[in-house]
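To the wet lab folks,

You asked to see what we're planning to order before we commit. Fair enough. Below is the target structure as tokens, and below that is the sequence we designed to fit it. If anything looks off to you, flag it before the synthesis order goes out.
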């Protein structure tokens, strides 16, 4: 099984940490985020992982090596310019041999990748998007009314949103919709597929998941993840 990890971002919202260490290599306990991702994928049958790198690419490659110590083969795909979240796929399309998993390099999750992969294989979708329901507190009271009469109020309700979780299952069919050497995001791919009448799968992630994109998220993950 093959997988791709997008590890080329600048990590601007995590400065000053990322001025020295690239975001995917920030530590969580005794391991970096990227090492945890690699070992999770390995434990679910992934044997070859492509790392799409740009910012501090030399640092990442010298730190991780060829993957031998993690029990996988690591292949580095270097971008000469920013290509977004889907553009990097155009650089390795000839090396992809079948369905694969792609994930952002700042996601920490206990997702059962084996089940996710099998779900994608069982469906006839070129793209299956992993989603997650997140709960956000609302800092005002929510009022229900009818004309000039107040009917009810809920003090500081919690709002639920289903979001894209930065984890995807794809088949080589997606390469037909991704331009060569061009900035192309996941939103562009989804819009293109829908515009051409191509159905897109959705897989709700019920396991632990956090996007380590901001300092408060990173600090939260450092406390939570080692205890899971």
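Sequence we intend to order:
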């Amino acid at each position: 099984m093959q997988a791709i990890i997008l590890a080329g971002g600048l990590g601007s919202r995590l400065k000053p940490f990322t001025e020295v260490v690239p975001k995917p290599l920030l530590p969580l306990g005794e391991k970096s985020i990227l090492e945890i991702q690699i070992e999770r994928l390995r434990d679910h049958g992934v044997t070859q992982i492509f790392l799409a790198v740009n910012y501090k690419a030399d640092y990442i490659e010298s730190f991780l090596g060829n993957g031998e110590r993690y029990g996988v083969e690591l292949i580095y795909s270097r971008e000469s310019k920013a290509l977004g979240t889907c553009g990097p796929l155009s650089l390795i399309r000839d090396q992809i041999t079948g369905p694969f998993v792609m994930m952002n390099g700042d996601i920490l999750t206990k997702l059962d990748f084996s089940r996710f992969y099998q779900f994608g294989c069982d469906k006839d979708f070129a793209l299956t998007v992993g989603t997650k329901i997140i709960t956000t507190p609302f800092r005002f009271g929510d009022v229900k009314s009818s004309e000039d009469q107040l009917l009810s109020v809920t003090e500081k309700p919690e709002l639920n949103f289903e979001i894209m979780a930065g984890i995807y299952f794809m088949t080589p069919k997606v390469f037909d919709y991704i331009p060569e050497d061009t900035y192309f995001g996941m939103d562009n791919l989804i819009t293109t597929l829908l515009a051409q009448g191509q159905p897109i799968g959705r897989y709700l992630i019920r396991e632990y998941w956090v996007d380590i994109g901001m300092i408060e998220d990173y600090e939260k993950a450092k406390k939570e993840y080692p205890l899971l």
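Structural context that might help your review: The chain has one domain: 2-130+163-227. The mean pLDDT is 88.

Thanks,
Computational group
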